[in-house]
Design brief:
The chain contains 8 helices and no strands. By secondary structure, the chain is mainly α. Helix 2 (18-35) packs parallel to helix 7 (116-130), helix 3 (40-52) runs antiparallel to helix 7 and helix 4 runs antiparallel to helix 5 (84-99).
């Protein structure tokens, strides 16, 4: 994850209510506790589920593009007033890109949609429980460490 992605992930948490962030963190801790001591297969299944989980960024992008496209089509074929919808939606998306916040964000966070970083935190905690990082030692080269992380 590059610095821009890390900054974006942090901005989502910074723009969210403390209670929402604590609920997300509590969910992650519960999941880790639930899978502690479980079999390799059970942990692997949960990791596969996390691989499929949509992040808040993906959810915002898909919802924004769906609304913008719908508004454009409705404006072209039904009534020109529908063109206001893509204008509003793209303004929200621009605001999210610049500030890390937009009006739909608190609603999506309240629904439990997590940032990519939060999903990855749970994923790597479970991978550590599964023993994926036992091959890493302080003597491992950066290339070996990266290969181990990418291979899990």
């Amino acid at each position: 994850m590059n610095n821009t992605e890390q900054e974006e992930q942090g901005r989502v948490r910074e723009s969210s209510f403390d209670e929402t962030n604590e609920r997300v963190d509590h969910h992650i801790r519960q999941s880790i506790a639930r899978y502690k001591g479980r079999s390799h297969g059970e942990i692997s299944e949960r990791i596969r589920e996390l691989d499929q989980e949509w992040s808040i960024e993906r959810t915002l992008e898909v919802n924004a593009s769906t609304l913008a496209l719908s508004g454009t089509l409705l404006g072209a074929f039904v009534n020109k007033r529908w063109f206001i919808l893509p204008g509003i939606v793209t303004t929200f998306l621009l605001q999210h890109g610049i500030q890390g916040w937009c009006p739909p964000l608190p609603i999506m966070r309240a629904l439990g949609i997590r940032s990519r970083r939060e999903i990855d935190e749970e994923r790597y905690a479970l991978k550590a429980l599964r023993g994926d990082f036992d091959d890493i030692s302080p003597k491992s080269s950066p290339a070996e460490i990266l290969d181990t992380v990418r291979g899990t």
